[in-house]
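Need the bound structure for 2-acetamido-2-deoxy-beta-D-glucopyranose, inputs here:
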Amino acid sequence: MQRRSAARLVPLLLLLPLAWGAGPEPPRADGELQVSSRRAGQAARVALHYLNYRQGSPSALRALGQVRKATVKTIPGIGHKYYLQFTTEDYKSSQNVGTCLATVLYLKRKPRPAVNINCTYTKDQKQTREDDYSFYKKLRQQTKPITGNDIPDSYGHIEPALEPAWALAVAGSSYLMWEKSTENLSYFMAQVKNVKQWVSEAEIKSALSG
Ligand SMILES: *[C@@H]1O[C@H](CO)[C@@H](O)[C@H](O)[C@H]1NC(C)=O
Ligand SMILES: *[C@@H]1O[C@H](CO)[C@@H](O)[C@H](O)[C@H]1NC(C)=O
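Answer from helper R.:
Posting the output first, comments after.
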């Protein structure tokens, strides 16, 4: 019989939506966008939410570095397609970890943007796999369940012991942040309100019978 994961982290997240579209907007013309424009940065972040979700690795999370190039094209009856080139940073260390080429298509009818993304990655991938695994092992061996509130706290501080729980919450919420984004609405994870580790029933049973 397969053993289920001993540890489940149940984080309650505070995802903040940023809505745009109220107030005057510059005309949505096709062509090159300024790399510092809100539209370019927003589309690049959506592509990264998608990437972080697909990778599913708390040790390999990436944030946006700089947009290098951004173009938008209207596809009549379908939506707006963004062509992007940008650099990425490691979530924790803020070190540059590679460049991405991505397209983000905001469809008129469906909220979920269609993303295609290819990146280079300069961080040691063996190391990120090992970091993920040692976190997983630590979770399983934890005798006292991990609990925490308000990560980061109101001063922006994250207790080192809770850093993995924070990273796991970012990885886990990436799917939602990608799925719920529209051209005028983007999400970022502001805070983990609380996190609690549960020991699954399967694990208790196997411990009792073993
Ligand atoms: C997004 O903003 C544009 C321009 O401000 C507006 O025309 C459009 O209706 C908005 N879309 C949504 C879904 O709010
Ligand atoms: C990513 O790579 C695939 C396979 O080489 C290619 O088909 C796709 O167009 C690339 N995507 C982007 C956004 O460059």
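Comments: The chain has four helices and eight strands. The two ends are 12 Å apart (CA to CA).
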